[in-house]
Amino acid sequence: MSEKKQGRLRRGVGLTNEELFHVGGLSGIFALRLLGLFLLLPVLSVYALHLSGATPFLAGLAVGFYGLAQTSMQVPSGMLSDRFGRKPVIVLGLLIYATGSVVAATSHGIYGLLLGRFLQGMGAISSAVLALIADLTRDEVRGRAMAMVGISIGVSFALGFALGPILAAKHGVPFLFWVVAGLDLLGIVYLLTFVPSRPSKRASAVALKDLGVVLGDRNLVTLDGVMFLLHMGLTAVWVVTPTILLEHWDQSRVWRVYLPMIVLAGGIMLPAMGFAEAKQRLRTMLGAGLALAAAGLLVLALAPGHPYTAAWGLTVYFVGFNLMEPVLPSLVSRFAPEELRGSAMGIFNMSQFLGAFCGGALGGFALGHGRYVLYWILLAACLPWAWLASRVEAPPRRKAARDLEADVAAA
After folding, report:
1. Which one, of 38, 19, 57, 36, lies nearest residue 240 by Cα?
2. CA–CA separation, 292 vs 290, rounded Å?
3. Looking at the whole model, is its pTM more than 0.85?
4. Which of 26, 244, 290, 342 could disulfide-link 82, Cβ–Cβ 3.0 to 4.6 Å?
5. Rg of the chain over CA atoms, in angstroms?
6. Residue among 322, 363, 375 at smallest CA distance from 236
7. Contacts with 230 (C-beta within 8 Å, 6 or more apart), sequence order
């Protein structure tokens, strides 16, 4: 193949250097933000159980309450980013999140922790960040851009789950909240220094009536439902499973379970996403992820008294989750009208965090009424989950990218 055609291939069906720089910067924002979140996730429910006034249900809410606030703010955040720009909304969200982290760090009872977690959730930036990534990338490479974000999330997940239990055992969970606040402020500096603004376009005067366009699209609404169930399951699993693993591994050693899980899931996700994008098999990847997640839940449900079985079940479940996670925002960005992309991402992320809240409540219920029952409940939820996923149509594909791929194949 000639160098000229190789260049066309890189420009047409691969991320350009400029796109890589843009997506890398925004992935850095996600990584800094979520590192703080993942430092807390493996230890928060256990910590909350020992606070003044705590019950198992309230301990579960301490994990999921963040999602309730995110639910209320995702649509306004997305709409504001359409109207006033992505970066101002992201900066404001990071500042609010840092404030909530300080409140949680200085609280000594369960209700203070709930308030801090709610304030953290009010700093909703996901819809604005994902919309900015969509603004700065072409349709045919957007899935790979979202996969890069997914990889950054996976790295943060690995570091957070590896370091969180160790730091909590040595310095206490409040110390982690201070770390989170510092990471948010660092994220603001990074955003203003390295991440480009959205390209100059006509300002979008988005009104509430425009949400009807988004809510009237069957594909977008279906993807919202899939995302709700995905994160309901994820949050519920992470409320309950750490308490099971900590019965068999010390808090400072449980990272030995989490780290291989993250490495395996991340190592599978990126090449799988590249293959699915190239072969137009995004829906196939969605189905494969759902099947693996269901298999992992079944293994977890059958694992009482068998810690290594539970560890393997969690690993299979998380691999399935990672196959689905980058597909969904990629599909939303393709189905959404460009001028309403932030609003569509807002509703999509609202569904995600509403699922997280419900998952926290469900996990808290399971802590008090039988932990392994949770996995059977989530297995039952896979049936409507699969039905929704089957309703997603093939995403629109740009003719230019299709023609270019045909030219390359003929070279």
Report:
1. 57
2. 5
3. no
4. 342
5. 21
6. 363
7. 321, 324, 325, 328, 352, 355, 385
Euclidean distance between CA atoms 266 and 270, whole angstroms: 7
Q: Which domain holds residue 180?
A: 18-197+210-398
Residue 63 within a domain: yes
Rounded to 5°, angle at Cα 179 from 176 and 180: 90
Position 253 in a domain = yes
* pLDDT 10s digits, 331-381: 887 787 776 776 777 788 788 888 888 888 898 889 888 889 999 999 999
- What crossing angle do the helices spanning 218-245 and 341-369 adopt, rounded to 10°? 30
Total domain count for the chain? 1
Residue 370: left if φ>0, alpha if ψ -120 to 50, beta else—which one?
left
Most confident of 33-42, 177-186, 206-215, 402-411: 177-186
Question: What is the C-alpha to C-alpha distance for residues 42 and 238, in angstroms, rounded to an integer?
Answer: 7
Domain membership of residue 223 (yes or no) is yes
User: Could you tell me the pLDDT band of residue 399, with boundaries at 50, 70 and 90?
Assistant: very low
Distance CA 336, CA 328 (A): 12
Q: Could you tell me if residue 282 is inside a domain?
A: yes
CATH assignment of the domain containing 387: 1.20.1250.20
pLDDT, the chain, mean: 79
Mean pLDDT, residues 216-244: 88
Residue among 28, 257, 87 at smallest CA distance from 161: 257
pLDDT digits (tens, 9 = 90+) for 175-224: 999 988 988 888 888 888 877 665 544 444 455 566 677 777 888 888 88
Q: Which of 21, 41, 3, 49 is nearest to 162 (CA)?
A: 41
CB 211 within 8 A of CB 343: yes
**CA–CA distance, 35 with 67 (Å, rounded to integer):** 17
What are the backbone dihedrals phi and psi of residue 205, each rounded to the nearest 5 degrees, phi first?
A: -85, 80
Rounded alpha-carbon distances, angstroms, from residue 40 to 34, 63, 174, 177: 10, 9, 10, 8
